[in-house]
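Fig. S4 source data, part A: sequence.
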Amino acid sequence: MRMRLHPDVSMTDTDDGTVLLHQRTGRYWQLNTTGSHVLHRLLDGDTPEAVAAGLAATHGIPEERAAADVDAVLGRLAAARLTVAAGS
């Protein structure tokens, strides 16, 4: 599933992660460094499975937990209408 940011969302990287601004609603969202890493890899076209495998290897956690964490990030971004499927 390839994704991109919603057209009304701007993104700024910080020392502590990433800040997203939905310009239409005026709401800000802050991602920590891990959430930022997940978002950037997904925007670069990596699959959620590949991102989860990378997190599991880097942090020494079970792949099932990493996959659940990636799914949670995806779900929250989509629910906040910060991301859309590429081609939409």
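Fig. S4 source data, part B ends here. The chain has a mean pLDDT of 94.
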